[in-house]
Amino acid sequence: MKKITFNSPVILSFVLASGIVLAAGFLTGGVITQKFFCVYKGSFTDPLFYLRLFTHVLGHASWSHYSNNMILILLVGPMLEEKYGSGKLAAIIAAVALITGVVHIFLPSDTALMGASGIVFAFILLASVTGTNKGIPATLIIVAVIYISQEVYNGVILQDNISQLTHIIGGCMGAIFGMALRGRN
Q1: Phi and psi for 39 in degrees, rounded to 5?
Q2: What residues does each domain of the chain span?
Q3: Which of 8, 27, 113, 119 has the fewest CB atoms inside 10 Å of its own CB, making it the most exposed?
Q4: Burial status of residue 115 (CB atoms within 10 A of its CB: 0-12, 13-18, 19 or more)
């Protein structure tokens, strides 16, 4: 009988932590999620403000929101973790969380931001760079054009409470990290 292996510690830990946060949010009527796992404008003197700049990627509004993000992370993440290593992948997750959180608080909006979709799109663009060490990969260009045009279209046409800017920032960060890391591994 084959044993189950913990093949991708960063990805599996992220998915598990996000699931626990989703359950805690459900059990508390969203109080835990709002207090610790959403980023929004707040006082710079509040220590939780800085924590939320990183933890907002663990919060999700619903099972559907969680499962859509986690399925993509589970599909792409283990390959990226194997290629770049757990430490680099954890640093990419933290960087995407911080940058998308900071950008969000400076937008002229009073909405909260939560979810891992910025990370999902960072992983998608990072994966499109993986596997080549010469030139700019055509897959990166094609994925970026399709993806960014879809997000711009959705941002202009749809009023859906989804932060397309977070998707675009995450995707751009994934492409940048991919180009920066691709000859170093």
Answers
A1: -110, 135
A2: 9-181
A3: 27
A4: buried
Distance CA 113, CA 38 (A): 5
- Asked if 109 contacts 155 with a C-beta cutoff of 8 angstroms, the reply is no
In whole angstroms, give the CA distance from residue 170 to residue 113. Answer: 14
- C-alpha closest to that of 131 among 64, 86, 182, 94: 182
In Å, the largest CA–CA distance within the chain is 56
Structure tokens that stand for 76 in this block:
């792409």
Distance CA 37, CA 58 (A): 6
Q: Report whether CATH 2.60.40.3140 matches the domain 9-181.
A: no
DSSP label of 182 = T
